[in-house]
Design a protein that fits this description.
single chain; 324 residues; alpha+beta; Beta-Lactamase; 2 domains; elongated; diguanylate cyclase activity; Rev_trsase/Diguanyl_cyclase; Diguanylate_Cyclase; GGDEF domain-containing protein; GAF
């Protein structure tokens, strides 16, 4: 089996890979100045991928579909294979107005599973071709049918992947604050732990426990308590950096992974967050600790949590000593 044939038959569910393989096979089997796969969108014909040396048409090239040979081919008013476009009046007229030199044309539709037109497989050459070019129609039908099958598989897989990602985001988003929730936090830690260990990346882990939430709930009601949490989340979100990970871990507890932050940078982040919370009328106790490849994120979290409770203990002790 020729290499191009073997490559064309390799299993794939990726439409772009299948297009490239089919075009390379066609170029080897039926050499023309250029073979292309196009997409038809809003009366525009967009070139997705192409092979051949006869034309300089980069991917993304967009042309009016109604002025193309593929348009009349799809309508069935012109043949799918024209070894010499001069023999087909409509093709001859279009060739005369085309921005490229076309003397031979081959085209066939690519349709989705519901029968809608997706695009075309088409070939062009600046010189007329032998009449035997018409004998390639069964091959063209076979390959376009294969592309249609791969297209459906890829569209279905992409739709399923998007739905899964949407469901995952919803499952990992805290409904009250819009931040990452505990599940999302745990998944990040699980996925990133190995990478941080492997490369020895730096990070700081910050723990925040809000003060006075129970009092707000008891005195003002749970709606006020929810608003208290939302104000805290908004203040924190405005404080963290772009690559940091911020989550509401449940109740009045928040966590931050300051990616790439040295201990002093994590301390500065905590300072900014304290000021932001104060500006939002919220208070809380912070603790932070550096990530270590020895103890990992669990060890950094425990150290930060211990530091947070120590701060909370000191604050409570200070308040208890304040004269009445």
């Amino acid at each position: 089996m020729a290499p191009a044939v073997a490559d064309a038959l390799l299993p794939t569910r990726s439409f772009d890979v299948a297009c490239r393989r089919v075009l390379e096979y066609l170029q080897q089997t039926v050499p023309l100045g250029g073979w292309a796969v196009t997409r038809v969108v809003d009366d525009r014909q967009i070139l997705l991928t192409a092979v051949g040396t006869g034309y300089d048409l980069p991917p993304g090239t967009s042309l009016p579909f109604t002025e193309s040979m593929c348009h009349t081919m799809i309508e069935g008013t012109t043949p799918r294979i024209a070894p010499d476009v001069r023999e087909v009046p409509q093709y001859a007229e279009m060739a005369a107005a085309a921005p490229i030199d076309i003397s031979a044309y081959v085209g066939t539709p690519i349709v989705s599973g519901d029968g809608r037109l997706f695009g075309t497989v088409c070939g062009y050459d600046p010189s007329p071709q032998p009449a035997a070019l018409r004998d390639q129609l069964p091959l063209l039908d076979l390959l376009s049918g294969l592309l249609s099958a791969v297209l459906d598989a890829d569209l279905s897989a992409t739709a399923a992947s998007r739905e899964l990602e949407r469901a995952r985001r919803e499952a990992e988003t805290d409904a009250l604050t819009g931040l990452l929730n505990r599940r999302g936090w745990d998944r990040f830690v699980e996925q990133e732990e190995d990478r941080f260990r492997r490369f020895g990346d730096t990070a700081g882990v910050v723990v925040l426990d809000l003060d006075n939430l129970k009092t707000v709930n008891d005195v003002q009601g749970h709606d006020a308590g929810d608003e208290y949490i939302r104000r805290a989340a908004t203040a924190l979100a405005a404080t963290v950096r772009r690559d940091d990970v911020l989550a509401r871990l449940g109740g009045d507890e928040f966590g931050i992974i300051a990616v790439g932050a040295a201990p002093e940078e994590a301390a500065e982040l905590v300072g900014r967050a304290e000021k932001a919370l104060a500006g939002a009328g919220v208070s809380g106790s912070f603790g932070h600790a550096p990530y270590s490849i020895v103890t990992g994120f669990p060890g950094a979290w425990k150290a930060a949590d211990d530091a947070m409770y120590e701060q909370k203990r000191r604050r409570r002790a200070g308040l208890s000593r304040t004269p009445s």
